[in-house]
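Build the 3D complex.
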Amino acid sequence: MSIKILLIGKPAVGKTTIKKIIFEGVNPLELLKSSLDPTRGIESKVYKWMDLELGLFDISGQELNIILREEEESIRSFANTNAFIYIIEYYKWKSSFQEYIDDINRIYNIIIKYNLKSQLILFLHKIDLLDRNKSKINFQKIKKEILNLIKLPIIPKIYVTSIIPKYIYYLYEAFFNILVSFSEHIYELKNIIDEILQKYSKIFCIVRNISKSIIVQSMTKDFDPDLISDVYRRIIKEALIPDKKGTIALKINKIKDVGLIISDVYRDNKEITHPLIKNIIYIFEKTEEKKIRELMTKIRKKVSNYYLKWAENNLFVK
Ligand SMILES: Nc1nc2c(ncn2[C@@H]2O[C@H](COP(=O)(O)OP(=O)(O)O)[C@@H](O)[C@H]2O)c(=O)[nH]1
Ligand SMILES: [Mg+2]
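Done.
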């Protein structure tokens, strides 16, 4: 299935950074250090996201106004958009909220004017810049306040995001939630893993696609969410280490009291065919290695069976 997503926001809000992390598998820590040229105008690219073919347009705030002046240009740019994602630098909300609200209204008017069946989504991004002094931020309260202020007839979904390890889980979850509604394949993948994980304890599981983007995250109910940031710090570093070709690479490392196991079983393994998955990473707390291996086998079998069935129906249609 082909879908079209527009990533909109003022220069330097983080559009290109998000795009590179989510769709190009680029290491978030590298992007924090380096600085990209701020996006001006429109940049577009087509990405593969498992079974989805995703046209992603990166549009700066000013460009939105320019496009809107030209009727034909507008129709071409906005037609068939599945989702508008508007990115806000939340720490600037107090000083610039009127500008943000104007942009959001503009997007809403586009949806109405061209009768689009698009979702309107807001990212409150760079949330890490907000918690320098505070320990706990009440995100639910913030979301409610914003919804009250924008008062639109359609209620946008709001996600709190950031690229630093402490919060990056939420950025991946946001894209999973947005994209899962377009792909039965991703939906099933998540279901399979959730269901199998239920019978285990203290495990966190990540599926990466061939461009090393994280597409599915799943954890047992008893997995300590406070460990996630450590886990991501570790995985992000680990992602930099090239995979050993043709082997079932199994690296075991310790992070505090978290056992970390990285499995490359989906790569170059002749028994299982899932060309869309790069690997599945299992992070576990104090669980026996035998149990993890058993879990890996179960997931591997179910996922590859599902893939084969899916491929039969979708790739070889008469
Ligand atoms: N602290 C922090 N900085 C971020 C985050 N996301 C992006 N940035 C930084 O914001 C700057 C602008 O990002 P960029 O992607 O070029 O913005 P664009 O113009 O919207 O494409 C870069 O220096 C990024 O490293 C985040 O979540 N937290
Ligand atoms: Mg940019």
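Residues 15-16, 36, 38-39 surround magnesium ion (ligand 2) (CB under 6 Å).
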